[in-house]
Every structure is written in structure tokens, then in C-alpha cells.
Write a structure and sequence with these properties.
The chain has about 100 residues and is mainly α. The protein has one domain. Helices cover about 70% and strands about 0% of the residues. The chain has 5 helices and no strands. Helix 1 packs across helix 2, helix 2 packs antiparallel against helix 3 and helix 3 crosses helix 4. The termini are far apart.
């Protein structure tokens, strides 16, 4: 497994130590969990930005975010992103794929 080394502030170190304690894990595992979570959030944010700007399709956005199409669709709706379909059109399209 590759190794990443970085400098952090004292506050960030204390926060990581708190996660270690709460999760009953070592520092490496705590940092891996936090990094994984942050990257997942970043991918979703990036996918939604591109989608909102009409630069990519919903399917491509789901691929970027690494989530199922319907999860991306629900998240986009929650963020007020126009999905380009009425609810009836969306239902019809979904039924075609099931």
C-alpha cells in the first residue's frame, strides 16, 4: 500500500486523535477513513457542479461520483439542480431501466 506523508496543524492532529479515540482505531486507519469520506464528498460536489453547469449528463455525473444513477438523481434534486424532466417523465424513464 502506498504511503502519504503530510504536515498538519496542531488542531487537525487533535481532531484526528479524537477520531482515533472515538472509533477505537489507530491513526493510520482513522486518517484513511477521513480521507476516504472527504474524497467521496469531493467527487459528489464536483459531479453536481458539472451537472448544474450542464457540462455532463446524469449518467456521467453518477460515474464521477461513483454512486448509482438514482442516488445521484436524488442528491441533485435535494440540491435544487434542475433534472430536465418532469416527475412523470422521470418515472417513465426509470421504469424503462427496471
Amino acid at each position: 500500500m502506498p504511503v502519504i506523508t503530510t504536515r498538519v496543524t496542531e488542531k487537525l492532529l487533535k481532531d484526528v486523535e479524537k477520531v482515533e479515540k472515538e472509533e477505537h482505531t489507530d491513526r493510520a486507519e482513522a486518517v484513511r477513513k477521513l480521507l476516504s469520506h472527504a474524497i467521496k464528498e469531493w467527487k459528489m460536489k464536483k459531479a453536481l457542479e458539472l451537472l448544474k453547469d450542464h457540462k455532463i449528463s446524469y449518467r456521467k455525473a453518477a460515474e464521477i461520483a461513483e454512486v448509482p444513477y438514482m442516488e445521484l438523481w436524488d442528491t441533485a434534486v435535494k440540491h435544487g439542480i434542475d433534472i430536465g424532466l418532469t416527475s412523470e417523465e422521470a418515472k417513465r424513464d426509470i421504469e424503462k431501466w427496471l
